[in-house]
Amino acid sequence: MLAVVLRLISGKTCTSKLAHSGVTSVRITMGGNILQIRFILLILLCIWVKPSFSHPHVFIDYIVDLSFDSSGLDKIGITWKFDDMYSTAIMHVYDENKDHRFDSVETITIIDKMLPDIKKKYHYFSYIEVDRKVFNFESITDFNAVIQDEMVVEFSFNIPCPVKTASTTREVRFTAYDETYYIDFDLNNVNVKEDANAAAFNYKVKVSGNQNKDYYYGQVTPEEVILTFQNK
Fold first, then answer.
1. Cα(82)–Cα(13) distance, rounded to whole angstroms?
2. CATH 2.70.170 location in the chain
3. Which CATH number fits domain 58-231: 3.30.1340, 1.10.357, 3.10.50, 2.70.170?
4. Mean pLDDT of 27-39
5. By CB distance 3.0 to 4.6 Å, which of 81, 91, 151, 226 could disulfide with 95?
């Protein structure tokens, strides 16, 4: 059918076999208002042909949790909440006993099967800068997978990010995104663990879009969490 439309738009006579309808062949010629017919066919072509900008396919709402120790920033906690459809797909594969929870064995299977690819190809979709320099981390800790309300999958993990205080203000920037835009990351909240360690510092957290990190043909600007802190 697509070939028929393309030939009609070009103004050519077309013969096509329509086996499923029981008609062996049909001969179509252009007539009437040619420009109007071509315009209609062009619209149909746009509907049939899958657009190149057909992303994203997976949606993740995420939360950032910042934790201090006595020296400064200790770790960045991440929680991913998957959309209902992708949650269903994860549960179908990894909730093997279909009890709407991930037991220890199923969680280990997720760690063994899903995480290596996320680490190797996408660096956990997590990017950190410390004082405007790239901070590379090799691994995550405390991974956990849960099913909320029997239908929404959440992954949580910590990124070790030790940043000690100095004589000047320290700055840590965190961004989560997928450059291919297969996955859309939406920042839901940023929390600081308020305890005795955090109380020893003056800190400030803000969130802003960083246009220097625009991706997917410059169409998407990721949200960036910016933490600044120093000793009191």
1. 50
2. 58-231
3. 2.70.170
4. 49
5. 91
The rounded distance, in Å, linking the Cα atoms of 125 and 180 is 11
The predicted-structure confidence for 132-180, as pLDDT tens digits, reads as follows 999 999 999 999 999 999 999 999 999 999 999 988 899 999 999 999 9
Task: Compute the average pLDDT of residues 75-104.
Answer: 97
Neighbours of 152 (CB within 10 A): 17
Using CA atoms, how far residue 79 sits from 28, 46, 103, 203, 206, in Å, is 57, 39, 18, 22, 18
**Span 74-100, mean pLDDT?**
97
Cα atoms in the 13 Å half-sphere on the side-chain side of 157: 18
CB 184 within 8 A of CB 60: yes
Q: For 220-225, which contacts have Cβ atoms below 8 Å and span 24 or more sequence positions?
A: 220/177, 220/181, 222/175, 222/176, 222/177, 222/185, 223/175, 223/187, 224/173, 224/174, 224/175, 225/64, 225/173, 225/174, 225/175, 225/187, 225/190
